[in-house]
Structures are given as structure tokens and as C-alpha cells.
Amino acid sequence: MRFPKVLTALWVTALTIALTVAGSVLTSTQAAAWTNSTCTVYFFNRCTTGSIPANSSGHYVKIQIDAADPSPVDLEWKVVDANNGVAVGRGRLAPGCTLRKQINGLYSRYYVRVDLAAPITWVNIHNNTTTWPDHEVTC
User: What is the pTM of this model?
Assistant: First the structure.
């Protein structure tokens, strides 16, 4: 059975509109999604997360580091711009403590690296919109 040319043209037009609308919805959903990356120290006293983009509207990344205990020394952490290698934040964290920090004014991709960490230290970087302290350490 053959469809008349008018019906075929209408069907193609309707399909084109449907795909355009679906593509717009998928694009806006993807833009609203947030990204995170984690790493856990197991054997070599260091780990590096994958890089993520800064939040596109707030221009920040947020990090959380749960330092394992026991360890004879404080761990060292830094947040690094993945494009140019510049550290945009750094510090030390005592064993058994948790750091939650937001770093503002960012427009690139960033990752976290920790060194001198005890095994089972957990590190996370993300760009979601949850309320987050500018800098908080709990032990």
C-alpha cells in the first residue's frame, strides 16, 4: 500500500518536529546534570580523582576528603586546574578528619590529588548545587 504524497510529507514533518523537541529536552536535561569523581587510597598513599567541569552557573567545585585513621602524618591535598596544572586550592588534613570545601570563581576542569594519605582515605569532587560550607573540618 502506498501513502499519498501529502500524507507522507505530513508524517515526515511531524517526525522532524518530534525529534527536534526531543533533542531540546535531552540537551537541557544534560546541561542540568551534575558531575562528580571519586578516588580511594589503597596502597600507595595517594590518589587522584578524574577531572570535572566547574558548575556552569555558580562557577565552583566542591570537595570532600575523609582522611583515614591511623596515619603518622597529615595528608596533603590540592585541587588542580586540569588544563593548565595550576593548583586553585591546597592544604593539609589530620588523620581521622573530614574536609568539606567549596572553591569559587572557577571556569575550567578540576581534579583533586591527595598525598601521604592512609589507606581507605576517600576523596570526592563534584559540582552539584547542594548547600555546602566554604570550608569545614570535622574530627
Answer: 0.76
